Amino acid sequence: MQIIEGQLLAGDDQFAIVVSRFNDLITKRLLEGAIDTLRRHGLAESGITVVHVPGSFELPLIAQRLAHGGKFHAVICLGAVIQGETTHHEYINHQMAGGILQASLTSGVPVSFGVLTCQSMDQALDRAGGKAGNKGVEATLAAIEMVNVLRELSAKGL
Ligand code: INI
Q1: Which parts of the chain have pLDDT scores under 70?
Q2: Which atom of ligand 1 is nearest to the CA of 27?
Q3: Model confidence, pTM
Q4: Theoretical Cys-Cys bridge with 67: which of 19, 96, 105, 109, CB 3.0 to 4.6 Å?
C-alpha cells in the first residue's frame, strides 16, 4: 500500500492571496489569518503576494491569471458574501465558486476557496477569527497541503 500525504510546510514556495475589498471588516481578518498561517508554516515574506480586488465576483479572473502565470505554487482566494434582501448573493456565489474551481482545474495549480457565504454579519465574524475559526487560515492550510501533495505525486512519477 502506498499512502501519499502533503506536509504542512511552505518553505521556498510562492503563494498569491487574492482578497476582496467588499465586506473588508471581515476580509481583513481572513487576510491576517492567511498571512499568519503562511509565516507560521515557514514561508518567507518574499514568498507572499497579496492582490486586492473589488468584490468576490472578481476573484476568479485574478485567480485564473495568477494560477496560469507560472510564478505561483498556489493561489488563495478570500472574500465574504453576506446575504442581503435580494438573491444577488446567489448569483455571486455560484459563479464565483465555479470560476475559482475552473482556475484551479485548468491551470493545475491549487486555488483554495476562502470565501465565507453567510446569512449574517455575525456568522461571518464568527468565521473570521471568532468562535468558529478563521476561513482564511483554513484555506491557507489547504493550499499548503495541496502544493505538497502535488509535489509528492510528482516525486513518485504519478
Ligand atoms: N461582493 C462581495 O464580496 N460580498 C458581498 O456580499 C457582495 N454583495 O452582497 O453584493 C458583493 N458584491 C459585489 C460583487 O462581488 C462585485 O464586486 C460587483 O458586482 C461588481 O462586479
Answers
A1: none
A2: 3
A3: 0.97
A4: 109
